[in-house]
Design a protein that fits this description.
494 residues, Rossmann fold, Archaeosine Trna-guanine Transglycosylase, Chain: A, domain 4, seven-stranded mixed β-sheet
C-alpha cells in the first residue's frame, strides 16, 4: 500500500515509506504531514548586477515585493564542531500569492529578464554559502544544469581578482539551457561546457580550489514538488544513481587542489546516495578531512529535500593571484559564428568544447555581424573600450551607443519584452558609451558637456534599453521609432 498525503495529492511508494519510517523514527509523522504542504519558492538576488546599476531602487524593490531574507545564524554542520555564521544577503523567500495580488508573475517580469534575480528552491540555496567561496577562487560546478547553484557561486567571485567558474553539464540540451541562464545574469568570468567528468579530470588535474558536485540522484526530495519523481522512483534507481555518483566523485576529487574544498549534494534522502557516499569518499581519499553535513527534510526546512557534505583536502590552499587589470580582456572566435569577450583568467578553458566563455559580443547574422543580446546583459559593459578595439573589421560601428531609460510603470517595457516596435523621443536617449577603434571611451556625458562640445544626437543608432536602470536588451533607433532587437525565442507571449 502507498502512504497518501491528501492535501497535496501525493501518494508515496510503499518501499520508500518503510525506509523513511526507519530513518526518521519519531519524526516520520511530521515528515508525512509536511508532504501535504505546498512547496515554497526562493529568490536569489544577483548582487553584482544590482551594484553595477546604482539607478535601480534595490531597497524599495525588496520592500515592495515583501521579500523575506533567508538568514542562518551560526548554523552548525552535523557531525562538525565548525560553526558558520552565514549572512545570506542574496537569498530570500517570496510570497507568490502576494506578488500575484499586486500584478507580479514571478519569473515573467522585467527584473527577471534583466538578470536581477534567479528563482531557486530555498533548500538548494543552502549549499553554496558553506563553501566559503572567495573572490579569487577557481571554481567548478560539475553537474550544473539548470544553473542555480552555479550562478550562486559566480556571484561570490570577482573578475578583477581572477575568480573563475567552469559550469559543466554533460547532457547537451540541459547545457544549452544552462548557457541561457548564465547569459541573462551577465557574468564575464563564467565558462560553460558539456563534458564528462573523466574528460575534465584529464584536462584539470588538481586544479580547482572549490568544487561542487550536485549529483544526479533518485530525487526523493522532489516528491512534493514533482509527481514524476514519484513515478520514476525505485530501489533499482537508487542503486544505479549511487554507482553513477561514485564514478563522478572519483573524477571530481582528482581535480581538487591542495587546501581545496569539495561540496557533495543531492536532492534525495537515501543512505546509499548520502551517508554511504560520504563514507566511500573518506575511505578512498584519506587526504580529505570531513567538515560536516546537513540533512534537510520537508518538515525541518522551508524548501524541498536536500543533503550535502563538505570535505577539505590537506595542503596549502590557493591564495589570491595578482592580476594585471589592463590585460584582462581577450577575444575568442568560435567557428566564425560568435565572438566572445572574456577575462584572461578563463584562457585555461579554451582547450574544451565550450558552449560559451565570458560574454558573447558579436553574432553572425544573415547579412552581417550583429551585436549579441548577451552583450546587453554584461555587468561591466561600460568598461569595454579595450574589447571594442579587437572586433573584426566588418563589425558594427562602435562610435556611439545610446541608453533608453524606461521605468516599471511605462507600458513600453512590456511592449519591448513582447518584441514590439516602440515610439521614442530623441530627447529620451542618453549618450551611454562612446568608443572608437583605438579604445578611447567616454562614459555618459552631461547635457551641458554635450552642448559645449557640440555633440548632437543622431537620428539613428544602437540603443540599450533599461528598466529602472537594469539592462533588458538592444533596439535600433531611427526617426522616432525603436526597432526591437529582443530575441524572438525569449519574447513574452501576449
Amino acid at each position: 500500500m502507498k502512504e497518501s498525503c491528501q492535501k497535496n495529492h501525493i501518494s508515496l511508494p510503499e518501499e520508500f515509506s518503510e525506509r523513511m519510517k526507519i530513518r526518521l523514527g519519531q519524526e516520520w509523522e511530521a515528515f508525512l504531514e509536511a508532504c501535504s504542504l505546498p512547496p515554497k519558492r526562493g529568490l536569489r538576488l544577483n548582487l553584482q548586477k544590482a551594484e553595477a546599476n546604482p539607478d535601480f531602487p534595490l531597497e524599495k524593490w525588496k520592500e515592495n515585493w515583501k521579500l523575506e531574507e533567508l538568514k542562518s545564524e551560526s548554523l552548525k554542520l552535523e557531525n562538525s564542531k565548525n560553526e558558520y555564521g552565514l549572512a545570506l544577503a542574496r537569498e530570500y523567500l517570496c510570497d507568490e500569492e502576494y506578488l500575484q495580488s499586486i500584478g507580479v508573475q514571478i519569473g515573467h517580469d522585467a527584473y527577471h529578464e534583466a538578470g536581477l534575480y534567479y528563482i531557486q528552491d530555498p533548500s538548494a540555496m543552502s549549499v553554496v554559502p558553506y563553501m566559503e567561496i572567495r573572490p579569487f577562487d577557481r571554481c567548478l560546478d560539475l553537474c550544473a544544469s539548470p544553473g542555480g547553484k552555479s550562478l550562486q557561486m559566480a556571484d561570490r567571485l570577482k573578475t578583477e581578482e581572477g575568480g573563475i567558474l567552469l559550469s559543466n553539464e554533460f547532457i547537451m540540451e540541459r547545457a544549452k539551457n544552462l548557457s541561457k541562464n548564465v547569459e541573462r545574469m551577465g557574468y564575464s568570468h563564467v565558462a560553460v561546457s558539456s563534458c564528462s567528468a573523466e574528460e575534465l579530470e584529464a584536462q584539470f588535474p588538481a586544479f580547482f580550489s572549490r568544487i561542487l558536485v550536485d549529483a544526479p540522484c533518485s530525487g526523493e526530495g522532489m516528491f512534493r514538488k514533482n509527481p514524476e519523481a514519484i513515478a520514476d522512483w525505485s530501489l533499482e534507481k537508487v542503486s544505479q544513481c549511487a554507482g553513477l555518483q561514485r564514478d563522478i566523485l572519483g573524477h571530481a576529487l582528482g581535480m581538487l587542489r591542495e587546501g581545496g574544498l569539495l561540496a557533495y549534494s543531492t536532492c534525495t534522502f537515501s543512505e546509499e546516495e548520502n551517508e554511504e557516499m560520504r563514507e566511500w569518499i573518506l575511505e578512498k581519499h584519506p587526504e580529505l578531512r570531513f567538515l560536516g553535513e546537513r540533512h534537510l527534510y520537508f518538515h525541518n526546512s522551508v524548501g524541498e529535500g536536500q543533503y550535502f557534505s563538505l570535505f577539505r583536502k590537506e595542503g596549502k590552499d590557493l591564495e589570491r593571484e595578482d592580476m594585471d587589470i589592463s590585460k584582462l580582456s581577450m577575444l575568442w572566435e568560435k567557428k566564425a559564428k560568435k565572438y566572445f569577450y572574456y577575462p584572461s583568467s578563463l584562457k585555461c578553458f579554451l582547450s574544451l568544447p565550450l558552449l560559451r566563455i565570458g560574454i558573447a559580443v558579436l553574432e553572425e547574422g544573415k547579412k552581417s555581424w550583429e551585436w549579441s543580446h548577451s552583450l546587453s546583459h554584461a555587468i561591466d559593459l561600460p568598461k569595454w573600450g579595450d574589447a571594442l578595439t579587437k572586433l573584426p573589421e566588418k563589425s558594427p560601428d562602435t562610435k556611439l551607443l545610446y541608453r533608453l531609460s524606461l521605468y516599471g510603470e511605462d507600458r513600453r517595457v512590456e511592449a519591448y519584452l513582447n518584441g514590439q516596435e516602440i515610439a521614442v523621443e530623441k530627447e529620451e536617449l542618453e549618450n551611454f558609451l562612446m568608443a572608437d577603434r583605438k579604445g578611447n571611451v567616454n562614459n555618459k556625458k552631461s547635457d551641458k558637456e554635450s552642448d559645449k562640445e557640440g555633440d548632437k544626437k543622431s537620428d539613428k543608432g544602437l540603443v540599450l534599453c533599461t528598466c529602472d536602470g537594469l539592462p533588458l536588451g538592444f533596439g535600433y533607433y531611427r526617426n522616432g521609432r525603436l526597432r526591437n532587437l529582443y530575441p524572438k525565442g525569449i519574447r513574452f507571449k501576449k
